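agent> fetching stored inputs for the zinc ion docking request
agent> found them:
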Amino acid sequence: MVKDKMVRPMTQPPEVIEVSADVDSVKCNGGNGALGHPVVWYSFDGKSQVECAYCDRLFLKKSA
Ligand SMILES: [Zn+2]
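agent> prediction call returned; pasting tokens
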């Protein structure tokens, strides 16, 4: 069986990840593959979004 794979070209814009409004911190490891990086935790710290310094992923709080 062949599994469908998400191919990520280098030019792909950073991912946006939505999290629930009650979440205070998120962790990111860049996902698998070339974009992976050590696990880091980010705190929203009152903001509605936080960006990963490693892979530029944007974590966005969903509005309730
Ligand atoms: Zn990241």
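agent> quick read of the result: The radius of gyration is 13 Å.
agent> awaiting further instructions
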